[in-house]
Amino acid sequence: xxxxxxxxESMFYYVRIDDLVPENHLLRLIDKHVDFSFVTNKVKxxxxxxxxxxxxxxxxxxxxxxxxxxxxTSERRLCEEVKMHIGYRWFVxxxxxxxxxxxxxxxxxxxxxFLEGNIFQEIFDEIVRQxxxxxxxxxxxxTVDSTYIKANASFKSLEPIVVDMGSxxxxxxxxxxxxxxxxxxxxxxxxxxxxxxxxxxDTHRSKTDPDARISRKSLNSGTSLYxxxxxxxxxxxxxxxxxxxxxxxxxxxxDKALKQIRRIKWRCKIRPESLGADKGYAxxxxxxxxxxxxxxxxxxxxxxxxxxxxxxxxxxxxxFDESKNIFICPEGKELRYWGLHKRSKQHVYRARTKxxxxxxxxxxxxxxxxxxxxxxxxxxxxxxxxRLNKTKEYRISQRMRKRIEExxxxxxxxxxxxxxxxxxxxxxxxxxxMTATAQNIKRMVKLLSKxxxxxxxxxxxxxxxxxxxxxxxxxxxxxxxxxKGIFITDRQCFVKS
Length: 497
Fold this sequence. Notes:
Elements: H1 17-20, H2 26-33, H3 38-43, H4 57-69, H5 75-84, H6 86-92, H7 103-113, H8 119-133, E1 141-150, E2 158-160, H9 167-177, E3 204-206, E4 213-215, E5 224-234, E6 240-246, H10 250-267, E7 274-276, H11 284-292, E8 296-298, H12 304-308, E9 319-321, E10 326-328, E11 334-341, E12 346-351, H13 353-357, H14 362-365, E13 372-376, H15 379-388, H16 392-414, H17 425-461, H18 465-482, E14 485-488, E15 493-496
Parallel strand pairs: 1-7, 7-8
Antiparallel strand pairs: 1-5, 2-3, 4-5, 5-6, 9-10, 10-11, 11-12, 12-13, 14-15
Helix pairs in contact: 2-17, 4-5, 4-17, 5-6, 8-17, 11-15
């Protein structure tokens, strides 16, 4: 017989929310292993001691974490989901009769109250501290990388920069702000109203998000407005111990990475032994600074000079006279110091044109009018990093790099980091810090769930099971040595010794 369900609603329900949340649910494991009570003390100074009581800050943090864990980027939708989802209500600490905070509460706290303090950075640091306290990371071997985050703005919002200073002063300001090769002209997309004009970061800014920069991920990808997020990851546990936001260019990436490394050493009290990165971090100054921090740079050093100058004399064929500060070519001619190239940070030595013009070995030495040789101001540090490229530790570190790419993939696909949901760097920073915090909590819960029950089981069995087993073994040994036979009748048992 075909059954049919009659929809009806009871007036009263006798049920505990705790019974409806599965034991192995992610939110239950987070509630078990992570302590969120620190939030109240972190934000206590931001609230008045008089007036109407506010919403518990821990409730707001737990709701924000739900949004990042499950990729709910809209705060209106987050409040609706918490209102409907019993598991979310249980995790936040609301029963079925409690009112869910309004979405405007998040905006008010983010833009006004929490903006005064470094709250989201402190939340991120506290979760990292709990991971260290529980023995989940040592911080010996790290990996750093950055990713592009599409800005919450379009080319339609671009407008020319209005300069209220002299041309010379403006050029000097641009050189300080954009020390890298960031002045290339870009061809905007279809949505740009002034189609056909060449634009760059030196000439245009977005009025919607002035902190976003025109960039592209690769030569074959499209141009758009981006921010750039940086992660510093501990290789073994995949826990993120540093997160930052900035402009999408190589110079800024290196500066952010170095700043995070120094902050980690001071804040977390750990001493990294190695740092893995891709070739984008193979800048001489960055490698030099990392070595000065006492860290081995596991960064691929590519010898572009040997590729570009294939078929001509390498610099090894030239001898250096330190007393005169000159190079001497294989034919005995002098290459005098020409100067320091500001952009490439190279010391350049150049021969005289008239010497190279009459030289019979010129086709084998140079394709220019005169031969020049150069070396980087941090050549010793680069050579040290090049020697590390041949070690076993370097190969292991490079294999670990894929783990940080997996973290970026998780953040973009499941946590909404592909596109910034806020505008301006100070608010996008909140997004990347809270995303990294949510990822750390997931790693933390996973590791503690694996190791926790085993440790408890062993500690519980040692004082009870092992003495019992030892006692039985002694009893069997005694019986085998002293008892020759056992005779059992209907009512009595006789032991023959």
